[in-house]
Amino acid sequence: MRCACWAVRASILGVRVVGLVGIAAWAACSSVPAATTEFFGPTVEPPRGLMWIQPGMSTAEAMRLVPNLHEPAKKGVRDELVLDTNVSDVRLTVRLDGGTVSSIVAIVQGHGARDLLTRAWGPPQIAHDSLGQPEVTWASESTGWKVKLDCLERNCLVEYTPYHVLTSEFFGSHVIPPGDLAKLRVGMKLADARALAPGIIASRTGIPTSVDGVREFVAIDDKTGVVRSIYLNLPPHAEDLVAEAWSEGWKASELGHPVLVWPDPTTGWRATLRDALGYSHDLAYDNFVPAAHFLGDQPDSIDALPQPILGKTVDEVKKAYKDELVPGKELALILLPTEWERVGTRVVLATSGGRVKELSFSLPYKPHPEARDVLFEAFKTKWGEPKEQDDKALLFHEQDPRIEIHDDPEHGAWVVEMR
């Protein structure tokens, strides 16, 4: 009767037990045995065929791979699927986030799970998580799974996540996001992003990867319906592995905080490593164009603006650059950012008589002050030595188009004007 009494007590305590509704349905338990080591098996992996399921998988695919998965008889506080266990003290759940598998969890009655799993798999590893809290885990490179044990007030959660040791090889030799993240772009429309990477887009809490301690995130701007950011959450020791893969990052500042940046001109991706929750790091990816490529090498044009603009009518410019136009009354374009800018490069167009007479844009260096001189050398490579004007602007090109550039130290940028 011990199990039956526990079930009645659980139904009274309700959500406080483990946040589950209807947990008393675990038994008919006077005749159902408790779990033994055989239930969890001799190797570290989810039981009852759940090893075929991976985070990021759709609900439909999970149910196809494990046909006995079903919705709970009564919906609880989170979206999940359940799997009948045929034991009295373990509940198997596949937790969902936006129709996508987020985790596999076994909920074990009482606090005997650690002893049971130790007898099944051997002693656990005792480490600390990104917040510095003790963490009890078992991991197997051969099965590709890791288990984290978290014993709460009355029960233990056994959470299964894919597992492979994180090494520098995970990051590759060039800066580019892993897996489906590489298909996305910051600023991409939500519908397009969802078609390319439906699982990660559906999740609002991130998707665990197959690599230990690495979680994928795509943040969406709900107001504009576009991808706002693409990033990985990494464990504390990952900084050395990133440097091993890509060499030492460039030191920069972001909103007053130090960051490391890796701009890769061969891929057009830039990675920024910043501190995150606790001792963890976020590695954010975005697209950029090197300033030298933005400018190009021809003195009478800008490579980032392949269609002529100066002297063209407003309608001609709007037609040629319809995808880059900034909404609003001001006539302006947004292009990819250069190395040291977080938002796109804004090209402002001045008109007279319905035609574009002047354009201007800024190339920032503030996050990485050493870039000021690098940009100045790029100007000289393109246009030659400048002449200083009375207003301290530098005249780089006197012929059509006239190119004047001045330093804006207050904002940490070079301002380029063409007319």
Q: What is the count of DSSP helices, taking H or I runs of 4+ residues?
A: 10
The coarse silhouette is: elongated
> Radius of gyration from the CA trace?
28 Å
- Report the portion of residues in β strands: 25-35%
Give the low-confidence spans: 1-30
Number of strands: 21
* Largest beta-sheet characterization: 7 strands, antiparallel
Question: How do the strands line up in the largest sheet?
Answer: 1-2-3-7-6-5-4
Average pLDDT value?
Answer: 91
Number of domains: 3
User: Separation of termini?
Assistant: 89 Å
Instruction: Please bin the fraction of helical residues.
Output: 10-25%
- Computed structural class: alpha+beta
Structure description:
It is built from ten helices and 21 strands. The protein has 419 residues and is an alpha+beta fold. It folds into three domains: 2-158, no CATH class; 168-287, no CATH class; 291-418, no CATH class. The strands form three sheets. It has a seven-stranded antiparallel beta sheet. A hairpin with a 4-residue loop joins strand 5 and strand 6. The longest helix has 13 residues, at 371-383. The protein is elongated, with a radius of gyration of 28 Å. The chain starts with a helix and ends with a strand.
